[in-house]
Amino acid sequence: ASSRARGEKPDALAALQAANEELRAKLTDIQIELQQEKSKVSKLEREKNQEVKQIKEHEQHKSTVVVTELKVKLHEEKMKELQAVREALLRQHEAELLRVIKIKDNEIQRLQTLLNAVRDGAPDKVKTVLLTEAKEEAKKGFEVEKIKMQQEISELKGAKKQVEEALTMVIQADKIKAAEIRSVYHLHQEEISRIKRECEREIRRL
């Protein structure tokens, strides 16, 4: 039995060593596999970071393009507005210039007519021309005064209407106040009469 026990002990030790070696081999394999997984994870993180960087750069480029397009569009709109304002001012200037030219032409024509009348030596004709001009000036002045008077009359009518409305409101307020005073007066008279009656009854009782 002792020999058998000594024979089994090396076998058990050998089996334990074999199991230990197998565990070490498995541990090595697991460590190798873990390192491989870490390498894969690191690679995926680098790829992800690279992809995120590319996306950011793409979005930034897109934003830059959009901002540039907006700036160009805004500049074009400003230039269109400036062109429209410039054209409007030019039309206004041309219209004003034509108006001044027309006034000057009329004045020149009037002076030319007057000069021709003087050259012809016809005092009556000169007098007629001057009288006609005076009538025209008087007519223009009358029209201006007429418009001014009409405006003043309109303003006076408006003021009169406001005064009448205010007077009506004051009259209505006075009527309401008078009615309130009459009502209070009647109440006071009734109260005085009541007090008198009570005093008379009290006097008769005493």
TrEMBL record:
It comes from the Eukaryota. One of its GO terms (molecular function) is kinase binding. The lineage of its organism: Eukaryota, Metazoa, Chordata, Craniata, Vertebrata. Keywords: Coiled coil, Kinase, Transferase. InterPro entries: JAKMIP. It comes from Gavia stellata (Red-throated diver). Residues 13-92 form a coiled coil. This is Janus kinase and microtubule-interacting protein 3.
